[in-house]
Design brief:
4-stranded mixed β-sheet, single chain, alpha/beta, 282 residues, 2 domains
Length: 282
């Protein structure tokens, strides 16, 4: 799939639903280029947290100064380094278009954490190495790569998700899930896996309470609302302190995300729908 741009297949997949508005605007049958991605920004401009406009630029290699590294460069210049003909980086660009405020918040948390680490190490040229990531960067990285946004208007359903009670959630409460809970892929690494979905594919969910009316809104209004809620959550200093803030989501258990899950026996596969640790739900 690396060099295959199958736009119709992506637009038909429920896994790619948050990216559908951006994908629909990409023309042609060849793999989208940097120029194609930047052209999408002309009608949907994005700014990073310091107010600079975002744009996608070619990846740089070699030993880089602190300011030229991936997250600092994005924060300081609004430049997202992007490899050509690369699914992972293309999907990252499309997530920026779907959730611009949330992506900017993640970038700001990374930049602040890297800056603090560099200052603590007394190395203004970039002493914050990947081995010094810390809890904040770990959580943000996990969500950025594998995150799933889970809007929910039903506390009982949220509790079943947190407590790994998969069959009760996805089968016994199937109709209620379709009315009061939804799942939006966020992590670009997870989208890359979704190019070839497989039993075992699991995301890291962040539950966000919403009003029941949310589930009747058009997709683009839903995305804008979730983007705002996500950004508020991710930028708050009391959040993103532990990966325990996220809860596993076995994605092919979501109703109608695969034709295989239209039977209760599907959810008896404990190798996929693992019971996990029971914990008292908030």
């Amino acid at each position: 799939m690396k060099n295959l741009w199958d736009k119709p297949a992506l637009l038909q997949s429920p896994l790619f639903r948050p990216l559908h508005p951006a994908i629909a605007r990409l023309g042609g049958e060849s793999f989208p280029s940097l120029q194609d991605c930047n052209e999408l920004l002309t009608s949907s401009p994005i700014v990073v947290r310091n107010g600079l406009p975002l744009r996608f630029v070619a990846q740089e290699y070699g030993k880089l100064s602190f300011e030229a590294q991936y997250e600092p460069r994005c924060y300081l210049k609004g430049e997202v380094q992007t490899r050509a003909d690369n699914w992972h980086d293309l999907l990252n660009a499309l997530v920026w278009l779907a959730f611009p405020k949330a992506k900017a918040a993640i970038n700001a948390r990374h930049y602040d954490a890297q800056t603090d680490a560099a200052q603590s190490a007394g190395d203004s040229s970039g002493g914050a190495s990947s081995s010094q990531r810390g809890a904040v960067r770990d959580m943000n990285t996990l969500f950025d790569e594998s995150g799933v946004v889970v809007p929910c208007a039903d506390p009982e359903l949220a509790g079943l998700l947190r407590d790994f009670r998969w069959k009760e959630l996805f089968w016994s409460r199937r109709e209620r899930v379709s009315e009061s809970m939804d799942f939006f892929l966020f992590g670009h690494g997870l989208y890359e896996k979704a190019l070839q979905p497989y039993v075992g594919m699991t995301g890291q969910g962040l539950l966000l309470p919403v009003e029941p009316a949310f589930f009747g809104w058009p997709l683009e209004r839903q995305l804008a609302h979730l983007d705002e809620l996500l950004a508020q959550y991710l930028i708050a200093p009391e959040h993103c302190r532990s990966t325990a803030e996220l809860t596993p989501v076995p994605l092919l258990g979501v109703p109608d995300w695969t034709p295989d899950n239209d039977s209760p026996a599907y959810y008896d596969n404990t190798a996929y729908f693992r019971p996990g640790r029971r914990r008292q739900s908030a």
